Amino acid sequence: MQVTKGIRLRLYPNQHQKEQLRQLFGNDRKVWNLMLAMANTRYQNNPASHFVGRCAMDALLPRLKEEMPYLKESDSTSFQIVDRQLSYAFKRLFKHQGGHPRFHSRKSTKQSYTGKSKLKILAKRYIKIPKLGCIKSSKTGRLQNVKVKEYTVCLMPSGHYVLSVVVQCEIQALPKTGKVVGLDLGSADLIIPSDATSDEDKFKKFTAKALKAKANLWQSRFSRRKYRATVSVRQFNHNHPELPQMELNDYSNWQRARQHKARLQEAIKNKRAGYLQRITTELVHKYDVIAIEDLRAKNMMKNHNLAGSIANASWRKVRDLLSYKCAWYGKQLVVVNPQNTSRICHNCGRLQEQFKGLSEHEWLAKRNWQCEVCGAKQDRDVNAAKNILSRGLEKLNH
Ligand SMILES: [Zn+2]
């Protein structure tokens, strides 16, 4: 099956390439801002005029390049992408789906450009990008035997350069294993499979305690340093009106903290994403049919704290990953109604009266219980996962 997917690599540009990239990010911003200004002026002059479409904007590009020769240093396909993005932004505006497109600022923390020219793999860790030439990267193995549709070079707030590539490739279905599973998305553990016999079979929540502690430390250093810099900039400018005005950016101390903080946050984000990818891949390898709860109907964690929102985000991510991976690898995902899955005994199918009237907190604390009808001892999450599996299989057979 032909599928479209994204692949990310790190880039390690040399000093010259870093300067080049700065120019290329700037060029894209320049074209965006020029086209946007033009569209705005056109509208001001004559509100009845038609919006200049993507092709008309593309047609203006050669003239711009004549006027501003430095634009020739860019991969020219990147300007077509800028035009496409701008016309898309306007289309959304006209449909009342988005606000008015804004000018892009040099000071925005994330800088990038997207092109659709060919990339050439030179070696295991070297890749050729139009206009930049040979550039050192992380392993290029995953770019073998794929068709590159688009590539984006991005400078992250952490100071890392990332190459994201949209590719088309052929995917083979995985061999069938004959196994089925129901998955409960829990609060103590992330995923509980219905065939779990011990705690080791459950998928833990992602934790990176040491990294998180460091990130929090640098976050608070960042805030403190930024505050101090703001104060001293104001004082300096007030006391020395005769000298050139200081700017916040002249203080490298807080900018260093910003980068350090961003690096740690990025590392956590990447690790979490990698973890979710790994466990969902493991699941589609292991099972032919996977039943999960419908998250829209599930009582998502109501507490609006950070832990709750991360759990909700992780569940959504797991569901999204499973749904496309099942489609890719010839497996089946069944989404079932989550109502009462954890309050019905899987052994006898009876709704438990014992849980009525429990507070949210008391209810979440009930890890193990005994059925009041048949006396079966149940692990709360595994029981729920088994109910989810039965509902999934029922749904499949109808
Ligand atoms: Zn029972």
Protein traits:
8 helices; 3 domains; binds zinc ion; 18% strand; alpha+beta; Nucleotidyltransferase, domain 5; 7-stranded antiparallel β-sheet; 398 residues
Please write out the topology:
Layout lengths: L1 E11 L2 H31 L8 H14 L9 H18 L16 E5 L4 E4 L2 E4 L3 E5 L9 E9 L5 E10 L9 E6 L5 E3 L15 H31 L12 H35 L2 E5 L12 H23 L3 E5 L23 H6 L2 E3 L6 E3 H17 L2
Parallel strand pairs: 8-10, 10-11
Antiparallel strand pairs: 1-5, 1-7, 2-6, 3-4, 4-5, 6-7, 8-9, 12-13
Helix pairs in contact: 1-3, 2-3, 4-5, 5-6
The protein binds zinc ion.
Question: Would you kindly provide a brief summary of this structure?
Answer:
With 398 residues, the protein is an alpha+beta fold.
Overview of the molecule:
By secondary structure, the protein is an alpha+beta fold. The chain has three domains: 2-170, no CATH class; 175-213 and 257-398, Nucleotidyltransferase, domain 5 (2-Layer Sandwich); 214-256. It has helices spanning 15-45, 54-67, 77-94, 209-239, 252-286, 306-328, 360-365, 380-396; strands at residues 2-12, 111-115, 120-123, 126-129, 133-137, 147-155, 161-170, 180-185, 191-193, 289-293, 332-336, 368-370, 377-379. It has a seven-stranded antiparallel beta sheet. Helix 1 (15-45) runs parallel beside helix 3 (77-94), helix 2 (54-67) crosses helix 3 and helix 5 packs across helix 6. The protein starts with a strand and ends with a helix. Residues 345, 347-348, 350, 371, 373-374, 376 line the site of zinc ion.
